[in-house]
Amino acid sequence: MTGDQLFIRLARTASRFTGRSLSFVLALVVVVAWLASGPLFDYSDTWQLVINTATTIITFLMVFLIQNTQNRDTEAMQIKLDELIRVTRDAHNALLDLEELEDREIAAFRARYVALAQLARERGDVLGDLTREFDPPRR
């Protein structure tokens, strides 16, 4: 098993665990236990440092976990959307790799679709197909 495969497996497992209500309850119990232990440790600097260090480390690791999960979900959704565009008759295939375009190119597509939406609202034809009136910009 490669490092990437191991990370993906670990991230997927951790994501499933941390996304459950049990994980929230467990974190809440830890915080309450920490608060309750305050008088035992005279609310010392060390007592505060324990929770600060623990939450910082967990937050740091969770950032990578969340980013990995978000990247995988976005990639899967993009592939599904690309397939829907590909198989839809009269769809503009130029939209298939839209996420790979430069910001100015995406802005040009967006402006055309905003114009289509405005035209549809003006005509009262919010369900009609007006895409034939504007061709997306060509690359």
Number of domains: 2
Element pattern in H and E = HHHH
Query: Helix/strand-derived class?
Result: mainly alpha
Could you tell me the mean pLDDT? 87
- From the alpha carbons, calculate the radius of gyration and give it in angstroms: 25 Å
- Which percent band covers the strand fraction? under 5%
Q: What portion of residues is helical? A: 55-70%
Poorly predicted segments: none
Number of helices: 4
Main beta sheet: none
Shape: elongated
The quaternary state of the protein chains shown equals single chain
Count all strands and give the number. 0
**How many angstroms does the end-to-end distance come to?**
40 Å
Which descriptors would you attach to this protein?
0% strand; 139 residues; mainly alpha; elongated; single chain
What do these coordinates show?
This protein is mainly alpha-helical. It folds into 2 domains: 3-87, no CATH class; 97-139, no CATH class. The chain has helices spanning 3-18, 21-36, 45-87, 103-123. Helix 1 crosses helix 3 (45-87). The mean pLDDT is 87.
Summarize the structure.
Helices cover 69% and strands 0% of the residues.
SSE layout:
Elements: H1 3-18, H2 21-36, H3 45-87, H4 103-123
